[in-house]
Amino acid sequence: MLCPYCGESESNVLESRDAGDGKMTRRRRECVKCKKRFTTYERVENIDLKVVKKSGKKEDYSREKLDRCFEKACWKMNREERERLVDEIEMKLLNWKSVEIPSKEIGKMVMKKLRKVDPVAYIRFATVFLEIESVDDFKNLLNDFKK
Which of 33, 51, 75, 119 has the fewest Cβ atoms within 10 angstroms? Predict the structure, then answer.
């Protein structure tokens, strides 16, 4: 693990404990070079899913990309809440009928979660996801949301 302050690759683990409902391990570390402390999170990467893009191109599923979607849409939401939403969507993806999931379906899952937890974030995400390009399209989105 590289120190975020000086880039040293060696560090000592000072403390370890479960985090995220036992799904990951939080480690408090100290850099052997600069002696500054930092925290790392360790999680099992067992998701072997492929995302099928609009173009038909397939790429590996990335939890980080999904988290960035929520981060951009819900910039005021705390990290723990975002992690919970990402975990919920990941569970749905793991139970998907196939290991190849259309990106459109993942986007719909994100919209559904955002609609429940943060209406403004829902609108923010939907304008990009649905490729809203005109004021009339935006009005239609708002009208659909109100229903």
Answer: 75
